[in-house]
Amino acid sequence: MLRHCRSGLSPLAAVICLATIFPAAAIAKPLTYVNERFGQSCTFPDEIFSYRLPEPENGDGQQWLSADGAELTCSGINNVDNETPQGFVDEERASTEPGYKVTYSKTGKNWAVLSGTKDGKIFYERRLFGKDEVIRTVFIEYPPSLKAKYDPLVGAIARSLREP
Hints:
This protein has 164 residues and is α+β, with helices and mostly antiparallel strands. It has 3 helices and 9 strands. It has helices at 11-21, 85-93, 147-159; strands at residues 31-34, 41-44, 51-52, 61-65, 71-78, 100-107, 111-118, 121-129, 134-142. Helix 1 (11-21) packs antiparallel against helix 3 (147-159). It is globular and about 35 Å long. The two termini are 27 Å apart. Mean pLDDT is 87; it is low at 1-26.
């Protein structure tokens, strides 16, 4: 099912795609968050990520928590170091941070995806490297015991990340 949800979907198509991926949640429509500062957006099931944390003072993004220990962040940063998708992946793969391991990565012309483990949790991260020198990110983290629940969701949520 996920392979049919392409990254070039319109927001409406992303919602339809998410509704087919989340059949139990098809009654409740997914939430699309749009950041005022950087303009990034992402769509996700708000019945799962139901607790919205306070927005940071700098307005760079938003974070949500689930009742079962998962986290979702949609944010942006200025690309002050002229980071590239491949450079980002190479740096993360070379990290010696304790408890951090990249197990999957892929890059395109203006995007990068990482997956792995961090501090005992599974993570999935997608970054868009904008022509406006902004890096927009969706980051999802969840306990390994919830892999069967979240693995089917993360790809569609990550592919819903959009630039303005």
